[in-house]
Amino acid sequence: MELRASSSSAMILTTRFLALFLSLGFQVVHAATTAQTKAFTCANGQTVSNSVCCALFPIIDDLQENLFDGGECGEEVHESLRLTFHDAIGFSNALHFTGGADGSIVTFADVELGFHANIGIDEIVDTQLPFIAAHNATLSTGDFIQFAGAVGVSNCPGAPRLNFLLGRPEAKEASPDFLVPEPFNTTDMILSRFADAGFDSDEIVALLVSHSIAAADHVDPTIPGTPFDSTPEIMDSQFFIEVQLRGTLFPGTAGNQGEVESDVEGEMRLQSDSELARDPRTACEWQSLMTDHTKLQQVFKAAMLKLSILGHNENDLVDCSDVIPIPPPLPSNAGPHLPPNTTLKDIQAACAATPFPHLTALPGPSTSISPVPPS
């Protein structure tokens, strides 16, 4: 009996100890979780997960009012987004060059703006320089380029809320030439260049979501501001649909090298886009974005995050994504469609694994797409 009583007492003590241990463990886990999600209230009343991010709100106000024309998804947004790529893609495992998203395209503008692939980038660099100088106490040059891109994209209906990480050091040297892909590069060349920077074929397609709010000024200088799809003011899937229309490749001559004739008047096709849409390595991923806007947003956001921290250790940066404005949703009348007076017979489907989605054309006569006006 004594033995049984002793065993029972031991069991009770053990049970109580285990309960106390689990209770304390829960408190520790709860405290850690609370610490991770602790919010700081900034002077403007906004809450952020890290207090250093508070300094970014006045910069957003400056950019929206003075760079992005009061919050428009216009030319300066397009060019700022383009600049994020041209700066960050200066990264090469093969060359052991790990500059990446470091602002070298501005810091060493005398070198990098002379690269053929960077023709026209000088315009947005000149526009951003006063802002970079005004805010360099908070943002390095590399930080500013990625921050301006994320804030600008937030003005575009249908876009995802992009991430922004703070703390990139200043660039130490210029990027080597030939790291920025060009419209006349073959698909093999483009896939190889991106693989060297750590991107697979699906991620290349994801980054090209940027072309849904893009326009060309220098591919053919005779027609500046020519958009790549019929809805350059919103981030939707029309770019992926309309590039799949049949077109005629121009000869590679000066002035239109890398350009493909479009079946939609007023639009421009890039040779690289046209070929990526039809290459078996990228065609199915390309087609998958046509009717899945949620996926389009998700893959673009993920690819842009990866691009924006090229050359950096993510753990060395501060996540200030919660300061980026939330973009407007797609307009209620937006949706994947064929251009007026076209049918599925005008589509050159290229994905062998799945049928091309059943799309109908917008009603009404064909109209020419207007150029994107300069700021």
Automatic annotation (TrEMBL):
Residues 1-31 form the signal peptide. Disulfide bonds join 42-54, 53-320, 73-156, 284-351. Ca(2+) 2 binds at residues 212, 229, 231, 236. The active site is at 86 (proton acceptor). Keywords: Calcium, Disulfide bond, Glycoprotein, Heme, Hydrogen peroxide, Iron, Metal-binding, Oxidoreductase, Peroxidase, Secreted, Signal. The record marks 82 as: Transition state stabilizer. It is an enzyme of class 1 (oxidoreductase). Its cofactor is Ca(2+); heme b. Ca(2+) 1 binds at residues 87, 100, 102, 104. GO terms for biological process: cellular response to oxidative stress; hydrogen peroxide catabolic process; response to reactive oxygen species. Residues 81-324 form the Plant heme peroxidase family profile domain. SUPFAM superfamilies: Heme-dependent peroxidases. Heme b binds at residue 211. GO terms for molecular function: heme binding; metal ion binding; peroxidase activity. Binds 2 calcium ions per subunit. It holds the Pfam family Peroxidase_ext. Its EC number is 1.11.1.-. Belongs to the peroxidase family. Ligninase subfamily. This is Peroxidase. It comes from Guyanagaster necrorhizus.
